[in-house]
Amino acid sequence: MTTLTAVMTVLWMQVLSNGSLAVSEVYMEDSGMYGCTAENSGGPRRTEVYLHVTSAYPLMRRSASAS
Fold first, then answer.
1. pLDDT, mean of residues 7-36
2. What DSSP letter does each residue of 4-52 carry, written as one string?
3. Is the pLDDT of residue 36 over 80?
4. Which of 19, 29, 34, 59 is deepest in the core (most CB within 10 A)?
5. Residue 45 belongs to domain spanning
6. Residue 17's pLDDT is what?
7. 3-state DSSP call for residue 63?
8. Is residue 43 part of a domain?
9. Rounded CA gap, 19 and 16, in Å?
10. What are phi and psi for residue 7, nearest 5 degrees?
């Protein structure tokens, strides 16, 4: 059995059923270290990732049919 404990709940982040984290909207000030800690009978495990937001504006692609 897996038990998930939410430390923080925000509208722009969602944990998907496959365990991935989906972030729907980020801002420049969201850049920084994010970590996840999990623990089971095998002991604790922690991993961290640095999120680097490089643009303050959404990137838009022009469709191939646009002239």
1. 78
2. ---S---TTEEE-TTS-EEE----GGG-EEEEEEEEETTEEEEEEEEE-
3. yes
4. 34
5. 26-54
6. 81
7. coil
8. yes
9. 5
10. -90, -35
